[in-house]
Amino acid sequence: MLGNNIPQSLSDKTFLTVNYAILTLFALSVLYPLIYVISASFSSTEAIMQGRVWLLPVNPTLDGYKAVFEYRYIWIGFSNSLFYAVLGTALNVVMTILAAYPLSRPNLDGKRFFMLLLVFATMFSGGLIPSYMLVKDLSMLGTRWALIIPAALSIWNAIMMRTYFKTSIPGELLEAAQIDGCSDSKYLTRIVIPLSGPIIAVVALFCAVGFWNQYFAAVIYLNDKDMFPLQLILRDILIQNEVDLSMLSNVGEVDKRNGLRELLKYSLIVVASAPVLIVYPFVQKHFVKGIMIGSLKG
Amino acid sequence: MEVAFKRIRRNWQLYLLFLPPLAYVLVFNYYPMYGAQIAFKDFNAVQGIWGSDWVGLKHFEQFVQSYEFWRVMRNTLLLSLYSLLVGFPFPIILALGLNYASNRFFKRTVQMVTYAPHFISVVVIVGLMSQLLNPRLGVVNRILEVLGYEAINFMGKPELFKTLYVLSDVWQNVGFACIIYLAALSGIDPAQHEAAIMDGGSIPRRMWHIDLPGIMPVAVIIFILGMGGILSTGFEKVLLMQNPLNYQTSEVIDTYVYKVGLVSVMPNYSYSTAIGLFKSLIGLVLLIGVNRFAKKINQESLW
């Protein structure tokens, strides 16, 4: 975009050409693993076992996806993750607004102290074991709440939202509303929240992706497989290689079984990432906006 | 005093709104800090956090003198430094390159493609790596074989662990990390570039004298944050990439804390908490130290 109308020197032209070439190569190298996995997931078990997949699907079949659909725990995990993501995100959005709005008000007594309290909590933590003991003492161990309640608020998000409130909502609005006798809580629900669509969307997106992708909390807090989020089921299959083949119909000889195991993994990677990757192009600009707001110093 | 009290009363609704988040932070952030005192005690469940016996710095000494200490510290520091030194320049280079790609469609496409992996979960990333790097079936090893090399068991080689960790991180995050630099670049006054072009400044020179100084403040902040987190490695990813073959290079403070405290057949809460606290304290000191240093030389700081 820079200097488009000015004749360029030869060396600059060369530079730009090389620049385009490097960027293209780089983008391709990011893309290749993704394309490979998608292609492998549509290939046949024989093609996978013989290593004949390079770029495009070989002997295309839907066997892998069929196996994914038959694998009961994948569905359980899927619906569990949906539950955690929806409930956790809703709770987070409410908590974030409640934390951010009072702190965005100028001359609220004790504001500096509260901010310090929040900022310090982002820099220092009691650690894994004390947090675990807390969850245990609250009798949340082994329940679904253990994945939601301890993650009910992200302080970074609250600070980000506070910056948005401070910079994007004119103070005159508050004065006008106060003159008309509007209370603080009414002002928040009638004026601030309707004006804050973009930042609420950003916070909701960050949270939803976070809940969808998290697995460690489930590792330490849950033991009932029926409550496991998808990521934990994925870990068992993809990384610990624990595939319960009895859940799949028509598995014949050993060769076929091993092939199906591999194929299932590729299809699973696609199925697990698809929800986020399909939504992402549409919400990309919100994420970008979120980063920008977050980087402002409040 | 009375005036302040009056103001507080008039703003009671604001305090009421702030109550749930305040309670959350006190319970889930500050109560564990209180609980961390068991690092200085011999915790047992019957006596509880407060009632257990004080033992001073016993657990810290035990950790520092233990056989594991140097290995774990070394792995943690090397992995973080490696991540920081490789992960820090890439987004800047990508942003500089994209900034000179004048074709909008091209720029959009590259951005779209490079952001995408950021949203893939860490479990899937590690699963993807082990599929692609699989010694027998993985595409990387098949390429090596076609080129006439021997297949390599990448995930099982201790000496490759850190490189795999760092490069996959770059692959996943470089696009997303460059967003902030692109924004800083778009904030640079075009007049500077115009003036430089009039004076015959070539693109590399403009990058060096205009673009880099323009993004320096942002870069410094990001570097500070990185240095502050130097003891906090990507715990979840390390844990997923660990296997019995690579423990000697993959065991970091966080995974060690987890194993001592929760996985071991004889979990030791106090010892594990002490190691975690040791890490948190050094991290805090580092963050404050680097920030102060940056303020001195650059007038840039986090707060």
From TrEMBL, chain A:
Per the record, membrane topology reads: Multi-pass membrane protein
> What is a single cellular component term in the Gene Ontology annotation?
plasma membrane
- Report the transmembrane regions from the record: 20-42, 82-101, 113-135, 147-165, 199-222, 263-283
Q: Which GO annotations describe the biological process of this protein? A: transmembrane transport
Q: What is this protein called?
A: Carbohydrate ABC transporter permease
Subcellular localization(s) per the UniProt record:
Cell membrane
User: ABC transmembrane type-1 domain location, by residue?
Assistant: 78-281
Q: Which UniProt keywords apply?
A: Cell membrane, Membrane, Transmembrane, Transmembrane helix, Transport
Q: Which family does it belong to?
A: Belongs to the binding-protein-dependent transport system permease family.
**From what superkingdom does this record's organism come?**
Bacteria
Q: Which residues form the signal peptide?
A: none
InterPro entries with a match to the protein in the record: MetI-like, MetI-like_sf
